[in-house]
Amino acid sequence: ATRLSTRAGGGGDEAEIIGEHDGFIAPPPFGIIHMDSMRIYNSRIRGDDEKASIRSVFGITYLLATASVLLAHESGCSKIELLAIDDGNKYAAKLVNYYRRLGFETVRVVGDGGLRDLPDQLVWGGVGTRMDGRVQSFLSKWGGVIRRQAAAASEAVDTDAPEA
């Protein structure tokens, strides 16, 4: 099991966690990354400077997801698995559309199939839309976005640094 976290202001272990991503990597012969949960704590993002440097909550989401997928790639994985959870609200359809934009494809809906769904419900802990993605496709699509964000953040830090 793996947990990746991002902290406010780069303040090391003492800084507040503003995002977490849980899951596990099953290297070949399985070759999958199981993306279990992602939590972004908007209330912990403080100040206009920090909000501007993050740009959006989606920036944190992309960062955590891409870092996780990169770890999976380095472990020889080729497939990403996730469940777009359906908590019975209208947000579930938006979540599925969001993952589609990220490059994931629907495998099936979990929760309508009775005993057929039991294994998925035990693995994922809920109902929703099972989706898969390809590690290489995800990194090709989103790796450049992360590199551009990192370069922009680095420039912002360099601009804000006092001159010697």
Which CATH architecture would you pick? 3-Layer(aba) Sandwich
Total DSSP E strands: 6
CA-CA gap between termini: 45 Å
Query: What is the topology, as strand order, of the major beta sheet?
Result: 1-2-3-4-6-5
User: In the CATH hierarchy, what is the superfamily?
Assistant: Gcn5-related N-acetyltransferase (GNAT)
Give the CATH level 1 class: Alpha Beta
CATH names the topology as Aminopeptidase
Average pLDDT score: 82
Q: What is the overall shape?
A: globular
**Domains, number:** 1
Protein name: N-acetyltransferase domain-containing protein
Structural features, described:
The protein is α+β, with helices and mostly antiparallel strands and 164 residues long. It has one domain (2-152): 3-Layer(aba) Sandwich (Aminopeptidase), CATH 3.40.630.30. 43% of the residues lie in helices and 27% in strands. The chain has five helices and six strands. The protein has a six-stranded mixed sheet with strand order 1-2-3-4-6-5. α2 (57-74) crosses α5 (135-160). The longest helix has 26 residues, at 135-160. The radius of gyration is 18 Å and the shape is globular. The model has no long low-confidence stretch (mean pLDDT 82).
